[in-house]
Amino acid sequence: MATGAETVTTDAVFIPEVWSKGVYENLKAKLVFANLVTRYDSDVKSAGDVLHIPTPTQESARDKSANTDVTFDTFTDVDIDLNIDKHKYVAKVIEDIVKVQSRYDMRSIYEKEIGYALAKAIDGQLAALESDVSTNTVSAGAAIEDAEIIDAQQKLDANDVDRDDRFFVVHPEAMADILALDKFTRYDATGSAGVQTGAQNGLIADAYGAKVFMTTQIVETAGSPNLLQNLLFHKTAFAAAIQQSPKMEAEYSVDKLGWKVAGHTIFGVVTQDETRAVNVTLNS
After folding, report:
1. What's the CA gap between 81 and 271, in Å, rounded?
2. For 158-226, where are the E strands, in sequence order?
């Protein structure tokens, strides 16, 4: 006796589409700022809405005089609060007719778009921390020249900022200025042929030990003229904590005759030490 059977076709509405890995991989590929700052992801994975980061007071050495007791210093140390208060998402409806009639891999296309949108959201929040940087500023005027880069590096040197893990993140307009300085792109000066490229997204050059990255997320401040807020910084100047890596939620909607999907992420950012960063402004 013939009997009917429930199949993956008849019960398609009950089978979720899993997208998390693809969206996560695309987000990682597009991040610039978040790959260059101090990360506390593991500290907030399990729970919590505020991460307290202990910050010891910088010590100063004393002179020891003969036959005198030493002085024991006491400081009230403070902590930095990193609030996990950002919840960003991208939501779409993919109607069945699109899946049926499209010749393209719509899942792959949307994974890239969702990953890119979430990466921009995270990097945009980190770029906005430029408003905390007031101690060190360099005005480049109409174009970033060699002298401005040296000046910015000197400001970090004066604050005893370690030369390892320094990064210069710039707007495309600033990138064009830097690439025009052939000492950063010439083979006999850099030891490499042309512009540097590699696994790190956005890497374009090396400027006196600081790797230079390009992103469109650089803040533009309105004024006369508008100013692009490029940042030279040590990785400890800023911090981020991604509590929930990009995650996809999906359900079938009979009302829509399609899949409702939403990708979202939960994170926080904070300035740890603004003296370890320099705001290099460029007229836009």
Report:
1. 9
2. 166-170, 203-207, 210-214, 220-221
What is the predicted pLDDT for the residue at 198? Answer: 45
Cα dist from 39 to 44, 62, 127, 269, whole Å: 10, 35, 15, 9
Distance CA 147, CA 181 (A): 11
Residues 6+ positions from 203 with CB-CB distance below 8 Å? 196, 197, 211, 212, 213
**Residue 2: how many other CB atoms lie within 10 Å:** 3
| Tokens representing residue 129 in the block | 């921390």
* Model pTM score: 0.81
Q: Which domains does the chain have, with CATH numbers?
A: 14-54+77-127+239-271 (3.30.2400.20), 135-237+274-283 (3.30.2320)
Report pLDDT digits (tens) over 105-125. 777 778 788 888 998 999 999
